[in-house]
Amino acid sequence: MVILNSISRRSAHVARTVTLRSLSVLTPSEAGRRAAAMMAERQAKDPSAIATILSHSGMDAKGDNIPMAPPLHVATTYTRPADGIYRDGDSVYARMDNPTRLQLEKAIFELECINLAGREDKAITSYAFSSGLAGVTSILLAHSSPLTVLLPDDLYHGVSSLLSNVFSKHRVNARHVNMRDVSEIVKAIQSVNSNDDVIVWMESPSNPKCHVLDIQSICQAVEPLRSSYTITTVVDGTMASPILTRPLELGADVSFHSGTKYLAGHSDALLGLVTLSPVTSRGHELVSAMNDAQILGGAVASPFDSWLTLRGMRTLHVRVERQCKTTQQLVEYLEKQKEQMKIIHLYYPGLISHQQHDVAKRQMQGGFGGVFSMEFDDEATAMAFAAALQTVHRATSLGGPETLIEHRASIEPPERRTSPPGLLRVSIGLEDINDLIRDFEMAAGIAQEIVK
Ligand SMILES: Cc1ncc(COP(=O)(O)O)c(C=O)c1O
Q: Name one Pfam family in it (predicted).
């Protein structure tokens, strides 16, 4: 029965092909081939929009009957041909060239460079790691020491801890600079010993205070100093995701993301993504050292996490757009209720009152992100507010489909605590805005009762 069905379906298809053939000079396969050639030519001049590229993430297999989800390759090793010589494109060993990870690296490279002039025909210089911090570690390992790393005054605390707990033992110095003032960065570089390599480590928006750095102005200001110093400009764009900010297009040498957050997007994968600029000299210079840091350092992204991230990327644009919209609505609501809710400060670049709102408007495309922070007078009120929330979950991390709230000071190491005790960071998910407003409103009321 099944066989008969499939035969009759096949003969119907053949009959249709014959009819089409008799009506036109082109067979369907010829039409397909001709259209593919025309499209390739057009796309070379005018690439598809970001939404189209992302919707097809990981699915660039060619031919008929291709799978609509990328394959998950789990093998760690592959047979060698009988003559002992691997052919171009052969896989060897999972740490070196797992095909699912390579597919993810290709997808992130296309996304990071979508509007980057001069990227055409450049080799893929994206690297996927087993966590965001493994990516940060590998960027540092790709540099020579002595090395000075200039850090902004607000950033993800794990990066500062990695530098002071681990890299300080390896002739790596870290210094905090107010990077919202570009001249401070220039002064800081000029005071570095000229034997040192220098990394200008930007994070925009910053975690948790949502500072926005003017990436393009910083990269331009650093340029004249390159004749005296070996400088790498790096941007941690985790909080923006490549939808809102693409640092390589703004002149940075390296773009970094904790893929654990928006890119994977479902709170179920841990990985880091590093892309070297294919158009800056410093980007080129780092390629061989980054390859070594990834393959010999060995902290590669697993096939399954790579696969989950490719799947996440297919909806990244839609999720981020919605998260930006909900966050803007909620923060504007909270701003109006600030006094009543006893909120003393709101940190979000989408607010006109935010100090770098103009920079954010220019630099961030289509929204101001899905993370904001709110500050109460003291820790007790902040903790009571978080405890009273019902729709929102208390958990660290950000960028997933569920809204999370986090008391930052208590997760930061005591010796490097920079978050005020009353600060709560919120990562907005995909819930309905009215449910979130109701939850925040109720929690604010209850928190005031509890701390009285
Ligand atoms: C801005 C930022 N950078 C880097 C990281 C580290 O990423 P991972 O946790 O994937 O190692 C985080 C983690 O929260 C982060 O928020």
A: Cys_Met_Meta_PP
Reply yes or no on whether 106 is catalytic: no
Amino acid at 253: D
How does residue 46 score in pLDDT terms, banded at 50, 70 and 90? confident
Q: How far apart are CA 126 and CA 21, in angstroms?
A: 45
- Site to substitute for ligand 1 among 156, 203, 235, 404, most atoms within 8 A of C-beta: 156
> Measuring from atom 15 of ligand 1, which residue has the nearest CA?
156
316-451 has the same fold as 94-313: no
Q: Would you kindly state where each structural domain of the chain is located, as residue ranges?
A: 94-313, 316-451
Q: List ligand 1's pocket residues with C-beta within 6 A.
A: 131-133, 156, 158, 203, 207, 236, 238-239, 258, 260, 270, 272
Superfamily of domain 316-451 in CATH is: Aspartate Aminotransferase, domain 1 (3.90.1150.10)
Give residue 224's pLDDT band: very low, low, confident or very high (50, 70, 90).
very high
Is 156 marked active-site? Answer: yes
Q: Is the peptide bond before 242 cis (omega within 30 degrees of 0)?
A: no
Q: Can you give the pLDDT at residue 3?
A: 42
Mean pLDDT of the 235-258 span: 98
| Bridge partner list, 272 | 129, 258
What spacing in Å lies between the alpha carbon of 201 and ligand 1's midpoint?
Answer: 14
User: Does residue 261 carry a catalytic annotation?
Assistant: yes
Determine phi and psi for 127, rounding to 5 degrees. Answer: -140, 130
At 397-440, the pLDDT tens digits run 999 999 999 999 998 988 878 899 999 999 999 999 999 999 99
Q: 236 catalytic, yes or no?
A: yes
Answer CATH for 94-313 from 3.30.70.1140, 3.40.640.10, 3.40.50.10490, 2.10.110.10: 3.40.640.10
Residue 6's contacts (CB-CB under 8 Å, 6 or more residues apart) are none
Q: Whose CA is nearest to atom 11 of ligand 1?
A: 132
Tell me the two tokens of residue 113: 């460079």
